[in-house]
């Protein structure tokens, strides 16, 4: 009887070791992020540490600035030739942050700050800069956005930190 219990214990232990070996070998084949995440995107500071988990694995990251119209500038963050994230800086007549977000996404942000300046979800966020004056856009309000829905990573508090930091950087650059 004692022999059978020992044999069962050894069989269970061997099975557990085999399972652990199989699982650990699977982890070795996962894709890695081989590129460095920049501290700026298209000339604007960004919190690279907070942005990193929102980006997919890959070998090469590039950024591409594009002016869609006189009042809309976007920066595409591209990993291995595929769009990974996009930032926006846009001058519009004053609207609510949710109205601005609605113009860029079909998904409603889950969260909004009490002051109404930021709206965000797990992988995208929107900001408004009140009191920003720029001679090229008199009477307009500056809005920002970060959308990073390609990696599958979601973290609303990290996205809030990212949009607040990015919006402050944009305000330093663009407001007089």
Description:
By secondary structure, the protein is α+β, with helices and mostly antiparallel strands. It is 31% helix and 28% strand. It is globular, with a radius of gyration of 23 Å. The strands form 2 sheets. A 7-stranded antiparallel sheet has the order 3-4-5-9-8-7-6. The chain has helices spanning 2-27, 48-51, 97-102, 156-174, and strands at 40-41, 44-45, 61-69, 72-79, 82-92, 111-112, 118-120, 124-129, 141-147. The protein starts with a helix and ends with a helix.
Give a quick rundown of the structure:
The protein has 176 residues and is α+β, with helices and mostly antiparallel strands. It has helices at residues 2-27, 48-51, 97-102, 156-174; strands at residues 40-41, 44-45, 61-69, 72-79, 82-92, 111-112, 118-120, 124-129, 141-147.
Helix amount? 25-40%
| Strands in their spatial order, largest beta sheet | 3-4-5-9-8-7-6
Could you tell me the strand content as a percent range?
25-35%
Q: Average pLDDT across residues?
A: 87
Question: Features of this protein?
Answer:
alpha+beta, 176 residues, 4 helices, single chain, 7-stranded antiparallel beta sheet, disordered N terminus, two-stranded antiparallel ribbon
Topology record:
Layout: H1 2-27, E1 40-41, E2 44-45, H2 48-51, E3 61-69, E4 72-79, E5 82-92, H3 97-102, E6 111-112, E7 118-120, E8 124-129, E9 141-147, H4 156-174
Antiparallel strand pairs: 1-2, 3-4, 4-5, 5-9, 6-7, 7-8, 8-9
